[in-house]
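User: Fold this one for me? It's GTP pyrophosphokinase.
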Amino acid sequence: MAQSPRLPAPLLAFRISIADNVPSGKSPPARIAPPSATVSRKGPTMATIDKAVEIAAQAHAGVKDKQGQPYLLHPIRVMMGVSGEAAQIVAVLHDVVEDTPLTFDEVAAVGFSDEVLEALRLVTHEKEVPYADYVIACKANPIARQVKMSDLRDNSSLSRLLLRPDRLVSDSQRMQKYLLSYRFLQDELSEADYCRLMVDLKA
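Assistant: Here's what I get for GTP pyrophosphokinase.
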């Protein structure tokens, strides 16, 4: 039986203040210690999962998701749904550049491997890129594919399912988009069928 992914040390000491009530969206600017001059993405001092969790905790501090829960719990769950340290690093950081003031260059400067940085770029959805094109690019990279599938599973879970009466159509379309994307990543849909269905969905 496969073992569950190791829980990084920073999580054991991380404390979430339920008094914070910052709405979802862009996080407050994160403070990340500047990388040591000796850090090398290919050397023995390469940044690890512990550093990735620290960055995510700082970047998402005080932010709530649409259910009012600490947003950090989402990337943590995504991280726990993948295997391998590189995938775990990408998973816990997957929304840092997309949803917080941190830039990709700032994250890269910490010292993550080229393998991690390549996958992290792919799972970071740039708003001007059509969602289907973004998912297709993720599928081409084994780490990005694994992380995106875990992300979609968490976003589609019943505990996070959001169907608001005043936004029923858009919320339903979002869930259909997630389902189609997951089926494509699982090889249950061809790329042509996926693109056609996404166009029909206007996603």
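One thing worth pointing out: The chain has one domain: 49-202.
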